[in-house]
């Protein structure tokens, strides 16, 4: 099923807030705070709201799930990047996965790396 809506995220946001924003959009609520509360305290009630609104089958493309950024950035962390909950610096990853960035061939006619997933955002938004 093709997604009906596209969602991007902010790395500094809580995952709960991303989910709450998507659900709030689905039920046509203009703010996500009440949905975030339901996510934490009354998930069954939230499912009932989605069902009543006929939105259980609404599909979303969420970049955090669709783009493998780990493959490009896991071995290097910028000094200012911290976990938004613990406020601790992220550890670097030693997974050994081959890294693919915009500098990796083969390249498209516009010079962008074909195997890199992180350089396709503007294509997705077009």
Description:
The chain has 126 residues and is mostly helical. The chain has 2 domains: 5-63, no CATH class; 68-126, no CATH class. It is built from 6 helices and 2 strands; from the N terminus they run βαααβααα. It has helices at residues 15-26, 33-41, 43-52, 63-66, 70-73, 121-125, and strands at 5-7, 60-62. A two-stranded parallel ribbon has the order 1-2. α1 packs across α2 (33-41). The two termini are 20 Å apart. The mean pLDDT is 88.
Give the structure's gist in a few sentences.
This protein is mainly alpha-helical and 126 residues long. It has two domains: 5-63, no CATH class; 68-126, no CATH class.
Task: Kindly list the characteristics that best describe this protein.
126 residues; mainly alpha; two-stranded parallel ribbon; 5% strand; globular
């Amino acid at each position: 099923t093709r997604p009906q809506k596209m969602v991007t995220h902010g790395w500094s946001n809580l995952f709960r807030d991303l989910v709450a924003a998507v659900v709030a959009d689905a039920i046509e609520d203009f703010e996500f705070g009440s949905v975030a509360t339901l996510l934490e305290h009354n998930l069954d009630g939230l499912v009932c709201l989605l069902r009543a609104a006929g939105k259980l089958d609404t599909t979303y493309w969420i970049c955090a799930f669709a783009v493998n950024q780990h493959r490009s950035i896991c071995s290097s962390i910028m000094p200012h990047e911290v976990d938004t909950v613990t406020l601790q610096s992220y550890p670097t990853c030693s997974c050994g996965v081959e890294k693919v960035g915009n500098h990796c061939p083969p390249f498209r006619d516009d010079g962008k790396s074909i195997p890199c997933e992180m350089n396709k955002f503007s294509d997705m938004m077009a």
